[in-house]
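tool=predict chain=A
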Amino acid sequence: MALSHNIADIRINYSKKELTEDVVSKDPLQQFSTWLQEAIEAEVLEPTAFVLSTVDNRNRPSSRVLLLKDVSENGFTFFTNYESRKGRCIEENPFVALTFFWPELERQVRIEGQVRKVDTGFSDDYFHSRPRGSQIGAWASPQSREISSRSVLEDAGKRYEIEFADKELVPRPPHWGGYSLSPDYIEFWQGRPNRLHDRIVFEKQETTWLTKRLAP
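tool=predict ok
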């Protein structure tokens, strides 16, 4: 299939900022929070969006875009359907990778580690903070399962709207909740001129972090 542009010729010479050992935080979670805040203040498109990569029991990887909902000393938290493809992959292999990319700031963050389900109270609190339509959608969608048409979703949505019409709070589905990733590897990438990018890596060493620079 012919394209209107030669994609091999598309490139940007990054030059906005730098990342050096003397300015990076010694705490990678604090460094991530700083970069995330700067992405929010810069009004980048979807600053909390990341690519979640999982590997199933056949060693087949899969990736999809999600939204980060919390970051703290406990890790990186996101929510999803536990019975979705990603949920089944995590059940088979709890080691995953997250990738954030903020092109407006010429920055990327790669995070690896093990995930676990958050406690039910945390999942309940976040679920009830969502718009009611999203809550109904969590019941209506058999995520990652084959359906015959869109009307299957729309009919299910109407059915659950009727079922929960007299309830002030829509109950959280038992198959829907949060995961928290406990990181053991965090890499900060800052675009630099001539592809000589800055890459600073933090690797978990029991209770401390080992910091090193990688060649681009």
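Strands lie at 49-55, 61-67, 70-72, 75-81, 95-102, 107-117, 176-190, 198-205, 208-213. Residues 13-127+175-213 form a domain with the Pnp Oxidase; Chain A fold (CATH 2.30.110.10).
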